[in-house]
Amino acid sequence: MEDYIEAHKFSNNHMEQLKKDKICGCFYCLTGVKRKRNGNRNIKNMRTQTSDNVKIGNIRYFTELKGDAPISVYVVSGEKGDMLIDTGFSTTTQALVRWISEKGYNITDIFITHAHPDHDWNAARFKQLFNARIWLGKEDLSLICNFADQPQTPTHSRFVSRVKRISFWTKTPLFKSKHYVPDILIDENANEVAKQYGYDIEFVHLPGHTKGSYGILKDGVLYAGDSYAVLNGTPMEPPHAYSIEEMKDSVRKIAELSPEYLACGHGVPFLFTDHMM
After folding, report:
1. Which of 143, 159, 187, 191 lies in disulfide reach of 115, CB 3.0 to 4.6 Å?
2. 118 Cβ partners below 8 Å, 6+ apart?
């Protein structure tokens, strides 16, 4: 309860600063949650965009259209099952499970692009629900449920207050994923391991946002996690990183790979070739 009280004190004591931001400093505005008077999340009114209603290449995606950094989840197929890329956040759980069920995806694997709570929030739940293997970059193992293990630095002055708020909230129970244990730690042998499980994919190490940030390159699409982002509909470098220098190196690596599409952890996929022109 003390965490909740301190959180509200933060918003109250920084009122003038927060009024200047496009979103306020409270947890619910940061994550796009709207509450009914009885305290339940307003799931029915959640706006989503998926590959069913807006086709973008052959990418199968689910995006929750809330906030300035909409959360996106993806599915890629293998010979023996389907791989879920990231797991969404608390606000996406019910709608995401319904989408997976309606599409008939056979989720046998879950790839976490990096161990931040807006990406691995449902990892433990989905592992049990789908009886799936969890894949995570080995460098992010200590980051699970421990956001402060890799302190984030704003990549631009306009993101300073954003990073302060996120760093604050990740110290509270409201922003901690349920603990999970990865089945496969991604390293230099991960591509061969993926083949054994029927996936024709290439893992790409994209450190910077976190030490263990990885992407997947498949069929001209780079599923890049938060190594790149779409904020307010605009593709850009991520607003914060563990290492800005490594992040910029990863952005250059993405440019060198020159995928046709970039599918980020926030925002809908976009034509990367057009963005680079």
Report:
1. 143
2. 31, 71, 88, 89, 265
The Cα angle at residue 126 between residues 132 and 25, in degrees rounded to 5: 140
- Is residue 224 pLDDT above 50, yes or no? yes
pLDDT in tens, 94-117: 999 999 999 999 999 999 999 999
**Structure confidence by residue, pLDDT tens digits, 151-169:** 999 999 999 999 998 888 8
- Please, what are the domains in the chain? 2-275 (3.60.15.10)
Specify whether the CB–CB gap between 268 and 233 falls below 8 A.
no
